[in-house]
Each structure stands twice: as structure tokens, then as C-alpha cells.
Design a protein that fits this description.
about 675 residues, alpha/beta, 19 helices
């Protein structure tokens, strides 16, 4: 190519960094203002194609079509014009098809082109048939063959270690939101994750997940809950159809229920029970030999008929019964005899007693009994020396937690504990020996441990133990007790966990611990009942270079007017959530020019019976969304705030406008 030429070139569908390097090396670097546009499905390739000399990558992320444009594109292909109203008998089927396409233009065009070929009277039946069998249609119908080949190419191009992880997603039903941690631990328990020197299996599994996201094979999502980020993912319906087809062909999974009723499997290893007609599902199950099943997942709410056959599942490694009804305590006795179990989730079931024999599940890595009727776990759980994750919570009483038992130090593999209580000085001392612990929400009960000076000894031991947990990434901390009830002992930590990403303080405190300002890796800070002045909170937090999200809920700010000052710059803060319906302060929230330049999401909850006013929104130039929450009885106050915010948004250039959302509790 001539070195003096100026060019604009588009290169479509680059798959590897090596391919990009080979292409790029052929272009002259003549500084003539030339441009290259590259399309790719892989984020690492996109980053490599961007100029490394700039702070941010030049990447435009294609978004799926919104429902309106999806509908217009479908109508234009199926009926020849985007304004053509479909026959009322086809309306529901069309909506279902568009839902499966999820805004993917190639899918919409391919399916609409196929459906356009059918005329009355067969049109309605054929539309419904194709909607129900898109996976098989992609293999057999020439019109959809191209789309099937493209999706299959994405799978075929995966490294071998990711292919089984991708096929594994076919166990989950269509449109199912899969909790990221649940998926990662299941991959590990199933033996789908390879050992890598210097990394834990869970860390390797996370790298697999990130690579599948980078390759656009799975769709990530997340939300910020009471205790930090909740990460979920899902698979595009079209991609799921391809994965199911490949999984069934290879006997990688066995699916029962829904579209899969009546299917026969020679040997069952990974069994997924999905919703369907009960008698058809029962007939399919009666013919199955369960002795080779290694993994059982239930997505059908009522599984009582299957639970009575649990004794047949002698080789189970993974048992996931999340949300299933009909599970009784007698069934749990049988489950506790499945000695090969590595992953056990009884989350959302009705069980009320956990047998002592649970301590004999020596290979168990995950025990999830959240949202059940359990009041406690037996002390025999300390024998579970391979357990990495323990999740426990009561369905109705949120103040019932797992009370950490004596002998806790034997559970050296523990990495994550959802919520737990310490009420014993010796246990508080043992707590510091959990060197692998990454995540815990801990409540300290000091009722019984006060020395002669009135100083709870247990608080000193907890502070010492926390300073030893060098691997801790997530810490939620609260206090129960009869003394002053404050969390000031946190300021006395000899050495804070330096690698903390999440910190949540639940309870009154005189000031934020001095070490908070040193947490250079902290991305989330949350609190309830901390009752401090806004200048102290934000004056401390604004020093944190990695902080992206702040959530201050009930009774956190004592000022009647909260001023976010220009010195509160927050280099990376993206989301701010303030107040609750149970606190009247602050009545005024004011943003000064220059504060929170990067803020994209603002959430404010309105107190019943009072107005809450927001000033200075015009200074938040990067704002994308404002969410207002409150009771319907306070709708007038919400309406005034909503109108003012929308007026400010409309004054901005269209590209810089923000959404205003109102939610009622």
C-alpha cells in the first residue's frame, strides 16, 4: 500500500489477536489520518484493536434492537412493510418469537423470512410450530441454516476447556437468570475446571466465565443489593437452542419436562428437570435408570414424586434443588447419605431440620440453605473440612443466622459465608485462623462477654481476628448487644484487610474507622444506622481511588441538608443510593459544581409524609439514570421531584439526557 495514501477500511468479524496483528502489520503508519473499523465478537480482540495510547478504548458496543424496532424489522420481512398489522391470531406467536430473538437482527430477519413463505390456512399452525422448534429448524431448514452455522461457529471456535462449560448452560431453562457464583461452584464440582499453578479452581472458573463473556457467548448482568453486587448471567435463546441440540446429541445432559417430555435417554449423567405436564414428566422419569446420575438439577417447583426416589441417586456429585416445593426433612436424611456430594443447594425449600449426618459429607464444597425454615445448623458441620461456601438464612426471621461453632478453625477451606453470628470469645479467636476467607457478613453478639470494666472481650478478639484475614475481599459487620451497641471497636483493628473490595457497616459508629481511607481496592461502600455527618462520610470516601458505588440506607446521614461538595470528586464513582422510607434526613440533597464527575446512576428514596428536594443535578454531566422510590401515599412529593428532574434532562442535548424512573414500594 502506498505510504502517502489516506484510507478508511472496514474489516469484518476478526476472531483472534494474532489475525489482527497480521492484518495491522500490512498497513503503513503514515500519520495521514487514516482509520480502520473492525467488527468482532470478542472483547479482548476489540481492546487489542484500540489505540493503546489513549486512556479509554475506542470500542462501540452494539446493543440489541429495542422491542419497537425489533417488531418493525420482523413485520417488514414477514409482510413486506413495517406498518402491516399482523393477523390477531398471529400476534401472540409473533411476540413469543421476538422474545426468543431478544433484539438480534440476524435472528429476526432469518425467522421472519422463513415465516413469510407460509400462507393461510397453514400460516398460524406453522408459526407456532417453528416458534416451539427453532433449534431443530436451524439444523434442517435452509432459510435458518445460515444463522445456525454462525452460532455453531462461535461455539466451535471456543478453546476446548470452554466447550464443556458452555454446554453445561443447557441444563438451565430458557430465560433463566443464572447466579454467577452458583454456576462457578457447579463447574468446579462437576470437574469442568482445570488446575492451574498458583490459582484456586474457583479463580480459574472465574477466568472461564470472563472469557465466555468476552466472546459474547453469555450475557452478563448485575445489580447492587443490600450487601453489594449480585452478578447473574443468561444465554441468548438462540444460542441456548444450539447448546441444547449439541448437548443432547453428545449425551452431555438429559432434559425432562417442557419440550423434552417423552425423550428417552440410554444413560443419564447430568439430569435437569424442567417445568412441564406432570403425568408426562412422571412417565419419562419412571423409565430412567438413576444409578449413573452425577448431577441433578430441579427447575420444576414441585418435585415430590422424584424426592421419594432419592435413594437411587447413589453417585451424585451435584444436587441443586433451589426453590423446589415438597422437599421434607425425611428426604434430607437420605441426602446426607450421598457421601460423594460436592455441591448441595436446598435454598428456598421448606426443610426445618438439618441432620447431624451432614457432617459426614466429607467431599462437600458448597452448602446453600438460605431462605429455608432452618433455625440452626448442627455443630457437626465443623467436620466439613472441604467446604468453601456456607450460605444460611431463615425465610421469615432475618435475624436468624449461622452461629459460628467451636472448632470453626478446622474449616480451613472456608472462603464465603453469607451471614453468621459470633457469640463466643473462643470462636472469635478461632475466626482469625480462616486464612482462605474472602467473604462474610458477620454480626458480633457481646451480651455474655463483658469484663469488669464493662468492655466486651469478644470485640477485642474479633478486631484481632479481622486483622489476620489477609484474603478478605467482602466484609459486612454489625453488632448485637446490651452495651452502647456502637461499632467503634472497628477503629482498633491492628491492621485492616488491605484487599477489601466491599465494606458494609450495619450499626451506629462514632466515626468511620481511620483505615477506611487506606482501602485502595474498595469498590463498594454501604451502611445502615451509621448516623454520621455527610461531610465526614463523603470527605473520607472521596479519597478512595477505586470506589464505584455508595449505598447509604436507613439513618446514615444526620444532616438535614446534605451537600456533596466540589472537593468530593470521586474519580470512579458510578452509582449513589441515598436514604430510605424510614428516615426523614436529609430533607435536601445538593450537588456542587465539580463533585462526582463520573456519576451515572442516582437513587433517592423518599420519606413518607415529607418532601425530599434535590438541587444541583445540572452539575452531574455524566448522569444516565435517576431512580426515585417511595410510598404511593407520598406520590405528590415524588411527582414534583420527577417533573423537575425531567425538565433538567430535557434541557440537555439528546445524547446527554438521563432517564427518570419512579418506583413505588
Amino acid at each position: 500500500m502506498n505510504d502517502a495514501i489516506r484510507f478508511l477500511i472496514m474489516i469484518d468479524d476478526v476472531w483472534t489477536v494474532a489475525a489482527w496483528d497480521a492484518i495491522y502489520s500490512k498497513f503503513p503508519n503514515n500519520k495521514c489520518g487514516s482509520r480502520i473499523i473492525v467488527t468482532t465478537r470478542i472483547e479482548t480482540v476489540a481492546k487489542e484493536c484500540s489505540d493503546p495510547s489513549v486512556e479509554e478504548y475506542y470500542i462501540y458496543r452494539m446493543q440489541p434492537l429495542n422491542p419497537e424496532y425489533s417488531r418493525k424489522l420482523f413485520l417488514s420481512r414477514a409482510f413486506g412493510t413495517m406498518d402491516a398489522p399482523p393477523h390477531e391470531q398471529l400476534e401472540v406467536t409473533m411476540d413469543n418469537i421476538l422474545k426468543k430473538c431478544a433484539g438480534l437482527p440476524l435472528a429476526i430477519v432469518s425467522i421472519a423470512s422463513l415465516l413469510a413463505s407460509y400462507k393461510y390456512p397453514e400460516r398460524k399452525d406453522m408459526w407456532e410450530t417453528i416458534c416451539k422448534s427453532i433449534g431443530s429448524q436451524m439444523e434442517s431448514n435452509p432459510t435458518l441454516e445460515g444463522m445456525g452455522q454462525i452460532l455453531t461457529l462461535s461455539y466451535n471456535h471456543l478453546p476446548y476447556h470452554l466447550k464443556d462449560c458452555m454446554l453445561y448452560l443447557s441444563l438451565f431453562p430458557e430465560d433463566y437468570e443464572i447466579n454467577k457464583n452458583r454456576l462457578l461452584y457447579r463447574w468446579v464440582a462437576e470437574g469442568l475446571v482445570e488446575d492451574k499453578l498458583g490459582l484456586t479452581l474457583l479463580e480459574v472458573a472465574k477466568s472461564y466465565f470472563d472469557e465466555l463473556v468476552s466472546r459474547s457467548m453469555i450475557i452478563p448482568a448485575s445489580s447492587w443489593g443490600y450487601a453489594g453486587r449480585i452478578e447473574v448471567c443468561r444465554v441468548h435463546d438462540m444460542m441456548l437452542e444450539v447448546m441444547v441440540s449439541k448437548s443432547l446429541e453428545a449425551n452431555f445432559v438429559s432434559l425432562v419436562g417442557g419440550h423434552y417430555d417423552g425423550m428417552f435417554y440410554d444413560r443419564v449423567r447430568r439430569l435437569s428437570i424442567q417445568q412441564g405436564i406432570e403425568h408426562e414428566r412422571r412417565h419419562s422419569m419412571e423409565r430412567m435408570d438413576m444409578q449413573h446420575v452425577r448431577s441433578l438439577s430441579m427447575f420444576e417447583l414441585n418435585g415430590k414424586n422424584l424426592f421419594d426416589r432419592l435413594r437411587e441417586f447413589t453417585l451424585l456429585r451435584v444436587l441443586d434443588l433451589e426453590g423446589c416445593q415438597g422437599l421434607e426433612n425425611k428426604h434430607v436424611v437420605v441426602i446426607c447419605q450421598m457421601y460423594l456430594l460436592k455441591f448441595l443447594s436446598l435454598k428456598g425449600t421448606d426443610i426445618s431440620v438439618m441432620p447431624n449426618k451432614v457432617g459426614e459429607l466429607e467431599h462437600l464444597q458448597v452448602l446453600d440453605v438460605r431462605d429455608t425454615n432452618l433455625h440452626e445448623l448442627p455443630e457437626t458441620v465443623i467436620r466439613l473440612e472441604k467446604v468453601e461456601r456456607m450460605d444460611f438464612s431463615h425465610r421469615q426471621n432475618w435475624m436468624i443466622w449461622w452461629t459460628l461453632p467451636k472448632g470453626l478453625s478446622k474449616m480451613k477451606a472456608l472462603r464465603e459465608v453469607a451471614r453468621a453470628e459470633i457469640d463466643n470469645v473462643d470462636v472469635a479467636r478461632e475466626f482469625g485462623e480462616l486464612g482462605q476467607l474472602r467473604r462474610i457478613f458477620l454480626f458480633v453478639n457481646d451480651n455474655l462477654h463483658v469484663d469488669k470494666k464493662g468492655d466486651p472481650k469478644i470485640l477485642r478478639e474479633v478486631a484481632l481476628s479481622l486483622s489476620k484475614l489477609y484474603s478478605l475481599r467482602f466484609l459486612g459487620i454489625g453488632r448485637l448487644g446490651t452495651c452502647d451497641g456502637k461499632l467503634d471497636f472497628l477503629d482498633r483493628l491492628p491492621s485492616p484487610p488491605r484487599l477489601l473490595r466491599y465494606l458494609f457497616i450495619d450499626g451506629e459508629i462514632t466515626k468511620l474507622p481511620h483505615w477506611v481511607s487506606t482501602l485502595s481496592h474498595l469498590t463498594f461502600f454501604g451502611g445502615v444506622w451509621i448516623n454520621l455527618r455527610g461531610d465526614h462520610i463523603f470527605g473520607t470516601l472521596c479519597k478512595l481511588p477505586s470506589l464505584q458505588n455508595i449505598k447509604l440506607w436507613r439513618a446514615c446521614i444526620e444532616d438535614t441538608t446534605l451537600v456533596l461538595r466540589s472537593i468530593h470528586r470521586f474519580p470512579l464513582l458510578r452509582a449513589l443510593s441515598l436514604c430510605s422510607t424510614y428516615c426523614s434526613s436529609p430533607g435536601v440533597i445538593q450537588f456542587e459544581r465539580g463533585c462526582m464527575d463520573k456519576l451515572e446512576e442516582l437513587s433517592v428514596t423518599f420519606h413518607l409524609g415529607t418532601q425530599r428536594r434535590i438541587f444541583g443535578i445540572e452539575h452531574l454531566k455524566n448522569l444516565k439514570e435517576v431512580q426515585l422510590t417511595g410510598k404511593r401515599d407520598n406520590s405528590s412529593s415524588l411527582f414534583l421531584a420527577q417533573e423537575k428532574l425531567r425538565s433538567e434532562s430535557n434541557r440537555r442535548p439528546k445524547a446527554n439526557q438521563f432517564k427518570v424512573i419512579v418506583r413505588y414500594e
